[in-house]
Amino acid sequence: MSGVRHLVLVAPFVGENVGMTDTRPSLIIFSPSGIVPAAAPVRKALKRLNALGFASTLDASALSKHQRFAGDDATRLDSIHRVAEAAPHVALAARGGYGLTRLLDQIEWPLIARSVERGTAWVGYSDVTALQLAAIAHKAAGPESVGEGVTAGFWAGPMANEDFGHKDSVDGGDDVTQEVFVEAMTGELEAVGFRTEAGFDGLEARGRLWGGNLAVVQALLGTPHFPKIKGGVLFLEDVNEHPYRIERTLLQLHQAGVLDQQKAVLLGTFNGFKKSPLDRGYNLKAAIAYLRSQTTTPILTGLPFGHVPTKLCLPLGRKVNLVVQGRDVLVMW
Questions:
Q1: Is the four-CA dihedral 47, 52, 55, 60 of positive or negative sign?
Q2: Which of 27, 36, 132, 137 is most buried, by CB atoms within 10 Å?
Q3: CATH architecture of structural domain 26-189
């Protein structure tokens, strides 16, 4: 069970979304956060997603530009509401960056909830964490426990630009990431697995899966958009953050009582930072060891998720079972 566990690909399904004559699952690429620097990656992503079996389209303002954002706040807010009204099978973010926290007080959460009820799966990571966790907090992410094969709701997963439109890849991105995405969006993905450090053999837990980008999770703490989940399975990742900043943020979550309220914490990839001559042996491993000394909640490393080519799809807000056998971790829903 080492590496990413993904199941056999099947033909795309026809969902309950009405108004579509194409029998392929409908997919809209939209830009709720940072600016899309160039159109070429998005165009490539559209072609790749169509080749993977989706009827893919680009939201009207996906390529808008305003300062560092994909359009001003009103433009990006309108795009979210427009996609929710359309209720495609998949609402796929073009990229992250920054911008969603500006919009959280203005988003029409009942409209988001209705899109989920109609079958929409909202997918992304990084800055999209803000939309995902706020949807959980505002009860717009769907039921806590859903039936087999249901894809609607919020998924931490790949985004259009880098994962389907990467300029250096013939297929636009990592093949495992894309295969897992198709399986998740067609209702075939039931579990993911990975390898962790020794010392957690026999661990079993059940709880709501939630989390995402660590900096965004921290930014929502203390706001109405932070989901108050107890007994959950929290997963985290980040990029361009030095280990001491990662420790400081995790320590804030601990001191706020968040970590102790979870059944387990799963750490993905933390990359892109530069070492400092002041570290003197201090590194990410040391930071994690310190956090483990402060909380009784198991902290597992090795989750294949973050700002890396190969990443899983994780159903946010869904009840999951976590099982560790030796160093093999299985997360099932």
A1: negative
A2: 132
A3: 3-Layer(aba) Sandwich (3.40)
Round to whole Å and give the CA distance between 205 and 185.
25
At 147 the pLDDT is 62
The pLDDT value recorded for residue 18 is 40
55/73 Cα distance (integer angstroms): 28
Continuous H helices in the chain: 39-51, 73-86, 109-117, 129-137, 160-164, 175-185, 214-220, 243-255, 284-294
β partners of residue 93: 30
DSSP codes, 171-236: TSS-HHHHHHHHHHHTT---EEEEE--SS-TT-EEEEEEEEEEHHHHHHHTTSTTS---SS-EEEE
Domain ranges of the chain: 26-189, 192-332
Report the C-alpha gap between 69 and 247 in whole angstroms.
29
Based on its alpha-carbon atoms, the radius of gyration of the chain, rounded to whole angstroms, reads 19
Average pLDDT, the chain: 93
Closest CA to 105 of 130, 124, 87: 130
Q: Is the pLDDT assigned to residue 21 strictly greater than 70?
A: no
Q: What is the pTM of this model?
A: 0.92
The values of phi and psi at residue 188, to 5°, are -95, -15
pLDDT of the residue at 148: 65
**Residues marked as catalytic:** 126, 237, 307
Give dist(CA 190, CA 195) in Å, integer.
18
Phi–psi pair at 134, nearest 5 degrees? -65, -35
Q: Under 8 Å CB-to-CB from 257, ≥6 apart: which residues?
A: none
Kindly tell me if the per-residue pLDDT of 16 is higher than 50. no
Contact between 76 and 99 under an 8 Å Cβ cutoff? The reply is: yes
